[in-house]
Amino acid sequence: MKLQTFFLMVFSVVALGFTEGGSQLQPDKFDVRVLLAKAERSDVFEWTLKSPNGFFLRDPDDGTIQEIKGTKITVSFKQGRITINRRRLVKNGVELVAKSGETAFMGNRYAGFFALDYASREGLVHLVNHVDIEDYLYSVLRWESWPGWPLEVNKALTIACRTFLVKKILDSRREKEDGSFVRSYDIRATNMDQTYKGIHEFVALRKALEETRGIVMTFGGKPIEAMYDTCCGGVVPADLEGVDFVKAPYLKRDYACTYCKNCSLYTWKVIYRTSDFKELIRAGIEDAVPVRDIRILRRDKAHVVREVQVKTNSAWIALSGQKIYSLLKDIKSLCFSLKRDGNKIIATGHGCGHHLGLCQWGAREMVRQGWNYKEVLEFFYPGISFTSIKVVYVDKTV
Fold first, then answer.
1. Residue 304 belongs to what domain range?
2. Which of 108, 219, 341, 342 has its CA 20 to 30 A from that of 190?
């Protein structure tokens, strides 16, 4: 079959190209911008970076460099002013580049270089790690996958992680009117996006990267928003409220995954002392008034909790299911029920996560039964195609 090639602009000197069908094209080097830390104007903070061979400071505009004495950089922020090793930063950005080797930050080790970006108008400071796309994915797999699982499972998750990242890159690198990017970073390093903690030693995960190198999932010619969770609990995604299935039809799976049914997270139970439970809920109520009772008011068709009522001394207060989920850290998903039993409240539920996209424990069982990674992904993301990413350098002056 003849492959069709087309390109998606990233509005920099780099474009990402995609080739339908497979991974014949090898991707060039491409740096991802990962947000590791941030602060606001009112914050007082100190960030420390270390590298055994020392650092350079590099101007992001003209590339000029300045050598830093010693093996440590301390970035401080107070009263809207940034200092680097006690010297004030006079521009809104600088790059912190290890002379060689890795950089240590907050207990983790990182490849690539760091960029310090200060949006003075918004009062935001971002510390961003620029790292090669495949090195980033190698790190993410350590925390988002299960390193000891079969290779075919981790190949499926590698493609999901890569696709999720590419979608984020394209979204973040759209140009504003002044020619700058929408954001100074592509993706966050927490589970708000994908967990990234830098360098690790699980070398077996490299094979999943190598055997899927450059492959992403697309729908309608564009990378999809490749959501994934630990265990879907048999919830049918098409029945979920609040998801824009017009923009993301590949997430509207209208059949259940039952492959995760033997996972301990398929059904779960959490037991609270009534007094502890009420205190946890109280933290989410304005003025922290005492809680007398709680009841689930509304669920969607997928049986996911959408609204809860909390009784106080004076009134019933409505809270969203998402708010309750954020207050009760031991609850695994929004698909849960509550039952009072003496001086205890018992929460029982299904699944772990948001119930969208790839179910990791389901994928593991499917591979055990003989499914390959493409079949697994096509099951969880109906209607997708597989595409190979190609980095193309574009001269914007032409």
1. 267-350
2. 219
